[in-house]
Amino acid sequence: MTRKFGPKPGIEQIRPYQGGKPIEEVQRELGLQDVIKLASNENPLGPSPRALEAIRSAAKQVHLYPDGNAYYLKQALAEHLDVDPSQILLGNGSNEVLQMLGEALLLPGDHLAYSDQAFVVYDLIRAIFGAKATKPPLREYTYDLEALAEAVRPETKIVFIANPNNPTGTYVRRNELERFLDRIPETTLVVLDEAYFEYVTAPDYPNGLEYVRQGRNVLVTRTFSKIYGLAGLRVGYGIGRPELISWLNRVRQPFNVNALGQAAARAALEDQGHLEKGRRINQVGMAYLEEALRSLGLEVVPSVANFLLVHLKRSGARVAEALLRRGVIVRPMGGYRFPDSIRVTIGLPEENERFVAALREVLEEVEQTAP
Ligand SMILES: Cc1ncc(COP(=O)(O)O)c(C=O)c1O
């Protein structure tokens, strides 16, 4: 019998991850000069000047491999977060931390739980490692922790909670989360994905580190890609029990966080003023966009992050395409089963205004879907 060369079962069923289109691609393909990107929840202010200075300085040493243990960045993070360095795992973006969980913990057929309209990378991890998942629906666009707790079985390996959730921008409250954690068996790891943590100002928003400090089976993931403005350098991290971190470090590629990323992240941590500026710009932009979009007759989901899910009553793909032709990149949400919606990242004031002006034109052009 001849054996056919091919991928593992399940690989061909994976829909390749579709990120926001890069500005250069839109410029090239549509022959446009002036393009803005509000598609990947990046910080429109850019990185801290201190991070840029650190990158320039570290660039002189790029012929050397980076510190594989990222000693100084880990020390700085440990101090900033008030945890022990042995509780920190660094990743090539927080996505890589999620992937390492799969590598270290998941066997084919293992059971996972997360919401059915949560950040897509959880389902990607499930598919790569041949796991199974129960995915209860959102309730009012928010993780339904009651339903999620019911989905967890004694053998469930990992629960993924994006807080706030992408693409809805909604969050679970401290008391709901604590009730949930109390119901979850010690043998199930709860991942609290806090990629947008620094943006959230709601008083009842829980800080996942509290549960790590209590010694629970919890891993918190955070990133330098969002408010820190370093998405292009790919630096994220997880904070959990030292034992879990030591397992994850065993599957980690030796030099997974590059030298420029390590230097920039350290410098960015020291510039908390830059974060404050980012938060302010976001709050002002969020208020403006909510109001402007509602006055166009559109429904927006209240968000505590740096993006908005906008319901259009029209094909999100067609609206995103028409916006692209006007040089505005946003994300259609069909892949998240919101076919009539887009997600827009809060930009600088002039970017937000340009988006609204372009959208006003596009809404005239694209007809409504039948109710
Ligand atoms: C909820 C959530 N988690 C994780 C990530 C991954 O971020 P990174 O890999 O850049 O750290 C994102 C990015 O969009 C996100 O929205």
Tell me what you see in this structure.
The chain has helices at residues 23-30, 49-59, 71-81, 94-105, 121-128, 145-151, 174-183, 209-213, 242-251, 259-269, 272-295, 316-325, 349-365, and strands spanning 36-37, 88-91, 111-114, 132-134, 158-162, 189-193, 218-223, 236-239, 299-300, 307-311, 328-329, 331-332, 341-345. The mean pLDDT is 96. The protein folds into two domains: 23-40 and 273-365, Aspartate Aminotransferase, domain 1; 50-271, Type I PLP-dependent aspartate aminotransferase-like (Major domain) (Aspartate Aminotransferase, domain 2, 3-Layer(aba) Sandwich), CATH 3.40.640. It has 13 helices and 13 strands. It has 371 residues and is of the alpha/beta class. The strands form three sheets. It has a seven-stranded mixed β-sheet, with helices on both faces. 46% of the residues are buried. The chain is globular and about 55 Å long. The longest helix has 24 residues, at 272-295. The structure holds pyridoxal-5'-phosphate.
- Note the main sheet: 7 strands, mixed
Determine the CATH superfamily of the largest domain: Type I PLP-dependent aspartate aminotransferase-like (Major domain)
Mean pLDDT: 96
User: Can you write the helix and strand succession as a string?
Assistant: HEHHEHEHEHEHEHEEHHHEEHEEEH
Distance between the termini: 55 Å
The 3D shape can be described as globular
CATH architecture title of the largest domain: 3-Layer(aba) Sandwich
Strand content range: 5-15%
Q: How many strands in all?
A: 13
Radius of gyration: 21 Å
Classify the secondary structure makeup into a structural class.
Answer: alpha/beta
The count of helical stretches stands at 13
Per CATH, what is the topology of the largest domain?
Aspartate Aminotransferase, domain 2
Low-confidence stretches: none
Strand order in space, largest sheet: 2-8-7-6-5-3-4
- Roughly how much helix do the residues carry, as a percent range? 25-40%
- Small molecules bound in the structure, each named once: pyridoxal-5'-phosphate
Our count of domains comes out at 2
